[in-house]
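Deliverable D4.2, example record:
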Amino acid sequence: MKLTFLGTGTSVGVPTIGCHCKVCTSSDPHDRRMRCSAMIETEQTRIVIDAGPDFRMQMLPQPFRRIDAVLLTHIHYDHAGGIDDLRPFCQFGEVNVYADRDTSRGLMHTVPYCFAEHRYPGAPAIRLHAIDHHVPMQVNELQVVPFIVFHGRLPITAYRIGNLAYITDMKSIADEEMVWLHDVDTLVVNALRFAPEHHAHQSVDDAVAFARKVGARQTWLVHSCHDIGLHEEVNRLLPADIQLAFDGQEVDIL
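Output generated by the structure prediction step:
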């Protein structure tokens, strides 16, 4: 199974419009971060987690093939604003989009034309599935288990796929949810910046402490803003088993 980081940035992306800091003006491509999204692939199956406003640009370099499932974490624009860009993939048939019930309702409000009884020609053909947390679902040969983390006070969906756990926009997690992280080999989790603390996102120190609690063999940090610092410098500060991911990075999942 292969994980591709389509985007590793926060809601405004990096570089940030109007900013001239050393990160936003860096010539290192590792410091350019589109909005957060990921893709999991096997020979038979392709799953995308979140489709934000950069989704079109993120998919252009990728081989054109069917998307078997789009898993949404929550309705915020930087995670769901690119749903309309699924339309090229509808030539393979309806695209199955999975989201919890609150996100499903929000999506139908945000892009109602995608779910009209008589869609106008060209609108993406989406089959929306309202999912329940902790109930495993099957996408071809891959089992997906949705569980809950908190983005401030907002409950959002994290996903366990085999030995991979993908968590974004987390500030906290209830103790009872930790069972879904048992024996995770590869952890993806958000780390906004070192300081100051944010009311709805983990800092780097929070993310490192959480990674140690989970005990994954490898942890990749995502959803990072320009305040985190230069990619190369940050990774020198971090332990080898906890590193900043970058856009376009590919990781083999055991």
